[in-house]
Amino acid sequence: MNGCSIFIADDIELFRRGLRTLLEHQGYDVAGEASSGSEVVAMAKNSPNSVLLLDASVSGLDSGDVMTHLGAKATDPKALVLSESFNEKEVLHAISSGARGYVAKDCEPAELFAAIELVCEGGMAFSDAVVNNLRSGIETAEHALADRDLTRLGITSREAQILQLLPTPKTLAQIAAQLYVSRKTVQNNASSLYRKLGTSTRHGAVVRAMELFLIAPSSRR
Predict the structure, then answer these.
(1) Which of 83, 117, 136 is the last residue of a domain?
(2) 218 assigned to some structural domain
(3) What is the model's pTM?
């Protein structure tokens, strides 16, 4: 399996044990467990280059609060939030705080494994249930809002194409190949896009675009 270590944060011991058994049977290295928000923060800060499977409401802190307490360096743990229920506000709060994905607790094991791999590779992952929930909310909003914001922000059609692919684990070179343009073209357009969205990072651009309803997250692209 992927070389990322796995940490499990949930205040229900039975769930942690069951999840650990499932992951280890699949070949993952489960390096630790935590049952409260404070334990998560202490554990994760000493666990670089790992994936943190984080209960959305772990005892003491919610997932967004936990992410706020963690760092923002590339080597910091990549949090994948697990939740029994969700809504747009809850999901966006976790993602805007730095979480790399959001998955329903009752998802199929294969879906969880795929999400872990995406996050470990640097992508963002959302279970189908979460995607459908967010997409439903986005589709009920006026489409003119997104069009108006694209125009207001000066986002070009090429930048809009690239924006749709930013939530995936594709590298800029892979995005270039998919769009049949040069890597330099994608780099230049991505830099311009980040600036227009008021950020300097790919993750920041995805979060801002979601907030503006310019994109809907997808578990598969």
Answers:
(1) 136
(2) no
(3) 0.63
**Is residue 153 a contact partner of residue 129, using CB atoms and an 8 Å limit?**
no
**Per-residue pLDDT tens listing for the chain (221 residues):** 556 789 998 989 999 999 999 999 999 999 888 888 778 777 766 666 789 898 887 755 666 666 666 655 444 678 898 988 776 777 777 777 788 888 888 888 998 998 999 888 888 888 777 766 666 555 554 454 456 667 778 888 899 889 989 888 888 999 999 999 999 999 999 999 999 999 999 988 988 888 887 876 554 44
Examine residue 65 and state whether it is found in any structural domain, yes or no: yes
Looking at the structure of the chain, the number of domains it has is 2
139 near 191, Cβ under 8 Å?
Answer: no
Q: How far is CA 196 from the centre of its chain?
A: 21
Same domain? For 118 and 152 the reply is no
Does a structural domain hold residue 220? no
Q: Is the separation of the CB atoms in 180 and 189 below 8 Å?
A: no
